[in-house]
Amino acid sequence: MSVDANDVRVRWRAVARQFPLWRFAIDMFFDLNAWRMIGADITMMVLESKQAGRAADALAGASPETLTAIAEIARVNEQRSSDIFRAVFLSYVSVPIALAALLSDAAPRALSTFFEEYTTGIVILFVGSVVFPIVYFCGSWRAKQIAWVIELYRAGALTGSSKG
Cβ(15)–Cβ(149) under 8 Å? Predict the structure, then answer.
């Protein structure tokens, strides 16, 4: 049986739409299931979440081949988002810290003068170097959530929103 590429794309978008990045903070702090991420079994929080139930509804009726294709998209998406997070973290956090450490040893007076003259810009860059990796981490976590939901659905552990 062949896979309908359009069906795969439509179902993928329907699943991914359940996990928007802008809702990440809301879901982490105000969804009661998020507070169950401690312990040996954190799968139940996924199985009982409303987003996972709606994602399961989007996957309902898909052929095994379509589910395999969607799971592969999720795997690629998760890998790409993790790679982007690592690159952003490296370039926004590690490199500036290493550069500041090098300059503090090589030219401490020049560095302190630079900090005094450009304090506002440095604070803005510092905030950006903290915020952007956090945003990319959240995107990476969302990509993992999408992959988890698809795999749990494929395993038969996840049912639609009307049941879960």
Answer: yes
pLDDT for 128-148, tens place per residue? Answer: 888 888 999 999 999 999 999
The answer, yes or no, to whether residue 60 has pLDDT greater than 60, is: yes
In angstroms, what is the C-alpha Rg of the chain? 21
Q: What is the pLDDT of residues 62-103, one digit of tens each?
A: 999 999 999 999 999 999 999 999 999 888 888 888 888 888
- The residue type found at 113 is T
CB 46 within 8 A of CB 145: yes
Domain ranges of the chain: 5-154
Core vs surface per residue 118-128: b (16+ CB within 10 A) or e: eeeeeeeeeee
Among the listed residues 132, 7, 130, the one whose alpha carbon sits nearest the alpha carbon of residue 68? 7
Is the distance from CB of 149 to CB of 46 less than 8 angstroms? Answer: yes
